[in-house]
Write a sequence for this structure.
């Protein structure tokens, strides 16, 4: 099978492509950035918004794994989120339908559901917070509408939580946490009792392939998060232990942190500098993202890497590769 992987230079793409190759598939990687694994049979450098790029990528294709998306908490405006995550997905779907390509995996996000203290399953209502989550929610609807119109269409929608692991980018939350603790720049904000679900990259790839190989007609939607779920306090304690660093006993009250973040936000607006402390990051750190991924486990999936091993592998990668 010839499979197109969009966002092929990202963390998921660079791990997914070798796994698909090992299963005998022919792979076309598409990305604006360099870094698509050399094992891909064909690499398309370009923007998916460009019709010529989509045409080249989809030539003789049988399926599409759509990973590409705008995702960051700094420097991306709402219009960009909706263009990259919704409009480009719409164009990709339209071109694929013209070519009778109807097998899909779409990487959405738990952000399409919104945060919450209580664990939320696939049956929960979608209440996204912000443009990123809203754009992902609306992109999911495109695939559901598609399935209503084309009975032979098949799409696995995967909603992972924060993806981390060796090779993840500097703007990701777990990377920032490890770097802050490693550089003695971290102080705990609040009591640390927010639930923070995460998704280790090896587990995400395993879940993706498990669902893909068992796909059916229509749309199948699954949340993926590692188990057991952890609080921020537990996550922070583990990173300190793995880095073999002594943890300071000082905590910053949430109210004071918000005041500091407000000053940083004003400074960032004036200077254009991405400061490590922002109001959005303070709120995100202290807001639970609690999701119930029991559905995929009830299908028989077993998480291959336990959370402690996942964190250890990630921290070791940082120590070896990040200056």
């Amino acid at each position: 099978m010839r499979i197109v992987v969009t966002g092929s230079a990202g963390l998921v793409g660079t791990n997914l492509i070798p796994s698909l190759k090992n299963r005998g598939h022919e792979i076309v990687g598409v990305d604006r950035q360099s870094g698509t694994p050399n094992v891909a049979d064909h690499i398309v450098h370009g923007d998916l918004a460009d019709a010529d790029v989509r045409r080249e990528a989809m030539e003789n294709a049988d399926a599409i794994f759509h990973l590409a998306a705008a995702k960051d908490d700094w420097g991306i405006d709402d219009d960009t989120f909706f263009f990259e995550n919704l409009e480009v997905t719409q164009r990709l779907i339209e071109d694929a339908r013209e070519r009778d390509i109807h097998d899909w995996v779409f990487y959405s996000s738990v952000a399409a559901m919104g945060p919450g203290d209580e664990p939320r399953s696939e049956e929960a209502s979608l209440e996204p917070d912000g443009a990123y989550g809203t754009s992902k929610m609306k992109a999911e609807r495109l695939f559901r509408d598609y399935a209503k119109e084309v009975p032979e269409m098949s799409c696995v929608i995967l909603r992972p939580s924060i993806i981390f692991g060796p090779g993840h980018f500097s703007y990701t939350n777990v990377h920032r946490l490890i770097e802050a603790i490693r550089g003695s720049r971290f102080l705990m904000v609040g009591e640390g009792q927010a639930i923070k679900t995460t998704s280790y990259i090896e587990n995400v790839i395993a879940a993706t392939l498990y669902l893909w190989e068992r796909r059916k007609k229509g749309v199948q939607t699954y949340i993926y998060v590692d188990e057991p779920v952890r609080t921020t306090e537990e996550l922070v304690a583990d990173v300190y232990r793995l880095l073999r660093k002594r943890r300071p006993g000082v905590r910053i009250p949430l109210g004071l942190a918000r005041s500091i973040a407000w000053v940083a936000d004003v400074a960032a607006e004036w200077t254009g500098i991405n400061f490590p402390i922002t109001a959005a990051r303070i709120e995100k750190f202290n807001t639970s993202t609690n999701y119930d991924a029991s559905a995929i486990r009830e299908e028989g999936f077993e998480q291959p890497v336990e959370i402690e091993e996942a964190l250890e592998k990630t921290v070791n990668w940082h120590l070896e590769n990040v200056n």
Remarks:
- The domain at 2-168+197-225+288-304 is CATH 3.40.50.720 (Rossmann fold).
- DSSP finds eleven helices and 15 strands in the chain.
- The two ends are 40 Å apart (CA to CA).
